[in-house]
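>> received
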Amino acid sequence: MTDACVSAATLTVLFVDDDPDVIRAISRLVAARTTFRIFTAAGGEEALGILRANGVDVLVSDIDMPRMSGLELVRHARREFPTTLRILLTGAGTMDRAIDAINEGEVVRFFAKPFEVDTFIRALNDLGERILALRQQRYAEAQRERCEQLFQWIEKEYPGTLAFEREGVEVVIDLVRLRAYVESAPACVSAFYGAG
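>> returned
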């Protein structure tokens, strides 16, 4: 996966509300003004099933739902899917409930319904940018770690190989032998090379 692949990766959002009209309206709005792939659920249990079956970047849930409230849902999501960012919506927004949601479910945003559309879309897009930046950072860290593993393996198997002076020295690399060595290397090394 290249940096371009990381930045072009699809972002996903899951909307959860027991009111189908709200789900339809918010889905149309987000589809028209963002590049997020959209999932919807009519309740907490259905939402957890979607979270378990799909990689979801952002969970947006109504707080007031029967059977499992949005607050209960974000608590479950926080435990099971800690990298999924969480937003709560409520028609009866109180400061106490917002504080509970932020503290217990580590909710990143709280919107009172009806919310200001531009503010909501801007928040969703900002979260998308944050998610992509974190993905790129994790990818770069994984690449550095694989390089370090490769260099450690080369130095262990062929001491001094990486410590040569280039000035006035001709370096000849036998690619056939190098590939054979790498293919016999541990999985982390051959994965870096692309042999595994």
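>> The radius of gyration is 24 Å.
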